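Annex B, item 7. Sequence and structure tokens for protein A, then protein B.
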Amino acid sequence: MKTTKTPAKTVLLVASGDLRLAANQQCWAAQAAMEKALETALKREGWKVKRAHAVNKKLKHGFIDSQKMGMEVFRGIDPDAPLIVAEAVWQYSHHVLAGLTTHRGPILTVANWSGQWPGLVGLLNLNASLTKAGVNYSSLWSEDFADAFFRDGLREWLTTGKVTHDESHVQDVARLKLSAADVALGQQVAAKLKRDKAILGVFDEGCMGMFNAIIPDALLHPTGLFKERLSQSTLYAAMREVSDEDAEAVFGWLKKKGLKMQLGEDEASELTRPQVLLQCKMYVAAVRLADDFGCAAIGIQYQQGLKDLAPASDLVEGMLNNVDRPPVKSADGKRILFEGEALPHFNEVDECAGLDGLVTNRLWRELGFPPENTLHDLRWGETFEGRYVWVLLISGAAPPAHFIGGWKGAATERQPAMYFRLGGGSLKGVSKPGWIVWSRVFVMDGALHCDIGVAEVVKLPEAETERRWQLTTPQWPIMHAVLEGVSRDQMMARHKSNHIQVVYAPNAKQARRAARVKAAAMMELGLQTHFCGSLSADG
């Protein structure tokens, strides 16, 4: 395909979207509105926007909706032109990653500050994927593309080809002096993991184009973790071997625990009993396969492949991440598998979260703290009564131990049809107030890194929680988090994932100490580790 030279003061624009047509169509209006506001912002600076791919009137959207299409689009793009990747939606990073790896002009990723579809989550995944790939880029976000933060950043990018963000909240732990006791405990747990080794069960790699979520084997193996690459077809086949009686036993356990179920009869729009029973079979099958292959943690992709065969995996994932969960016997009925333990699950087969989740589980057990941990999407946030409160939200993998009321405070609701055609329930609840350690493992400059911070989970009025749910995805579990010592824009500038790992500690002091112990463990595993926010060696 022939490329043409881009005129002066013209920015090319591309938009990566979902692979699922229903999602692209439903979300297109928000994307079109964002692009119009972005065009206005650029016009104020004396620049024009040229879309690098047309809106498809037949498909009723203007997204790049496959890797194949992305490569075709980039073949026609002037490789030296300034390029904006504009995102108001969740997107599959691999749709545009190939083209961005060879683009020579300055790249700016932009998202609207909204929890709706959400572009912020798509932006963070794309940024993390570009970071792992070693691609230079800048990033901006805005509610209306008219605020001073955005205008100043856009002007800087148009002038210099990059945007400078404040990352003064980040400290390299290797330069700090941690207490001998914290270091010894972290190193002890990490050394045991490296010596004994452990298996991550990976049910199909690369969910939804998350290039950033795949840890290369050469980087993973020195930590003591090794992948057992399993197919989701194996999981589906194992589900068919689970008896109706076993599924009913799990269903009955959930009902007895007080899990609220919004059940209906319409398979296309409601959560039905047969959908939940299939999820119960998936749960039993997953635990049995983990036992068969000796997995210490597992990750189910679901979104591609399994979504065409079975209801959502999210209720399953939340159960797996909880210590108090339905018992599962071996196929011969002689053993209860992983009795008294959570079986850590890394949602959307995010291997960075898998490494983090397993290490956290073992460290917290050593510390004597509840080991339940999960990832969330860093979804969106707003100021409430003078504090910036993030909405951490995920599609249902959060454990009930995190919720106000535990199982009795949990509910399962049908997953949105545009993402989950065959339904299935989430595991929904409001996270209890308290202190957490948050973290993210990521790949940068060819090495494994880990960012660690602390946050306070706050309880908001019921009406405010409901308002935030309605602005995001009300079927999913929610956590209201105030990050300590990290501003909104610092977090967005630094965080290298759409996902954030969270685990509770008994109080603020214990959270800070646990974060230091975790940092020592991650460094012993060979990760370059960083404190984010007000953490310090002795704080």
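Protein B:
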Amino acid sequence: MTSLLEGAKKLVTRSSDVGARVDGLERAAAGARGRVDDAIVDDAAAVAARAASRLRLSADHTVVALAGATGSGKSSTFNALSGLELSAVGVRRPTTSWATACVWGKEGAEELLEWLGIPARHQVTRDSMLSAADEDAELRGVVLLDLPDHDSTEVSHHLEVDRLVQLADMLVWVLDPQKYADAAIHERFLRPLAGHRDVMLVVLNHIDTVPENRRASMVEDVRRLLEADGLAGVPVLPVSARHGWGVDELRGMVAKRVAEKKVTRSRLEADVRAAAERLQEATGTGKPPSLSKERVAALDDAFAEAAAVPTVVKAVEDSTRMRANRATGWPVTAWFSRLKPDPLKRLHLDLGSSGKELTGAARTSVPKATGVQQARVDTEVRALADQVGDGMAPSWAQAVRAASVSRLPDLGDRLDKAVASTDLGAEKIPAWAGLVKVLQYVLIISALVGAGWLALLAFGSYARLPEPPTPEVLAFPLPTLLLLGGVGLGLLLALVCRWLVALTARSRARKADKRLRDAISAVSQEMVVTPIQAELASYAEVRDGLATALR
């Protein structure tokens, strides 16, 4: 029980560091999915999942795998380290068909062995067979694996070696003096594991078969090859498993590393770092960019032109001027304006609820975007995507470009709907125009009264009737004053109102332009900016995850 508690404490401590790296790699892989080569993302996700699984297992046990080629003496080294004849030894052909495990201290290792996929018939508990041996205490916590030969002609052996090399906490490569420079092991295993030098040992077995005067130079040659593989500093031990030469030193080195309780963490860190570096190379190292306000504004302008916003704004101004002039103009001539078509109604805009029931709120008669306007939209979308993708890896920049145009096929309908649903504020005439309209009718009635009065006076004079007294105002006959004043003031009021109408029309046009551009900006945000921002958010998540994994 005490051992399990201590293991749990070590696991928590390890998880606080390595676990954060694993979580960062998981987030980076998830964010890069669909934007980076699937093989790289799958590899990163698999490494993260494998590391997370290992962290949940025994922290008191260290998996040490012996790997090597046919005839390298890997099984002899395994037997020498365990002190038992557990693996068959062959000379001419591979005899290790499946991995064999020797465990020092099996308590708590059951789940780990199950995770490693080692069948019970290939498991041996060392302390149950010779628990009094000094080496049992020295190697307590070791799970020693004897892997199949990596150069076996059996495909299943290759797969087993590849699988367990990924799962082992520590790797001991057993080389033969005659084949230590074989490209197969260097290109397939050693070079790809260049970042794992801290969890690796190299054993040059059968050293007894090498003339004594050549042994030192051969060991140096192995070190040189390892340095070329990126594994400078990896210990190289000359060993003769047959005669027991160097076995104690090898056992001591394994025991020391296991006792430090750093091997598992170092292996997981190396795996995570290697996968993160591959993913980083594919995603790029640039900082997450931000959208340029100038580029977004240029995109909004291009969308506004494509939606014929200037045409609609001009129609708002003309319609306001027409409606207000009709209301404030001299009634005798103002009715002529009704013969002119309303610019907004010609565009099927601002028709009220009854008009929208006939034409549909989402369709207008606004001119469609011309080829030049469409080309400008395409140019601005591409410029925005290129500005964002600058500094990103080509695959991610391509993902940004694809996102920027993913919704553009529906652009025409969305722009038309935005224009149709915008309140242009031109349906009602200004409040002051209503008062002027009443005043104009008062003046025209005054003029008619004056004209009628003068007509009666003229008829009476023609008929030789007695002339009735005519009121005067400031020495002007009242009928004449009513006629001239009604007509003159009506015309003057109409001229003054034309100036006020022009100001009102321009003011409403500015407000309509602001509302339309806000609506078009919302379409730009939805159709282009939001998809790009989603890519930027994913890129930022990947960069943050990789920074955590590589810290």
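Comment on protein B: The two ends are 35 Å apart (CA to CA).
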